[in-house]
Amino acid sequence: MAIAVSDLQDLITTTQKELGELRWTEIATDLQEHVALSSLLQESRVQFSAGTSVQWNIMVENSGLAKDTSLFATDEVNIGDVMKTAEIGWKHQTVNYAIERREIAFNRDPRRIVDLVAVRRADAMISLAEHMEKRFWGAPSSETDLKMNGVGYWVSTSGSAPNPGEGAFAGGDVFSAGTAGLSSTTYPRWQNWWGRYAANELDGSTAGGSDYGSDGTFPVLGLVSQMREAYVKTGFKPIANASVPSYNTGDRHGIYCGYAALAGLERIVERTNDKVTSADLQPYAGRVMFRGVPITYVPHLDTAATNNPIYMLNWGTFHPVFLEGEYMREMGPEVAPNQHTTMVTHIDCTANIYCTDRRRNAVLSNDVVALTNN
Question: Which of 26, 166, 261, 288 is in the most buried spot, having the most CB atoms within 10 Å?
Answer without folding.
Answer: 261
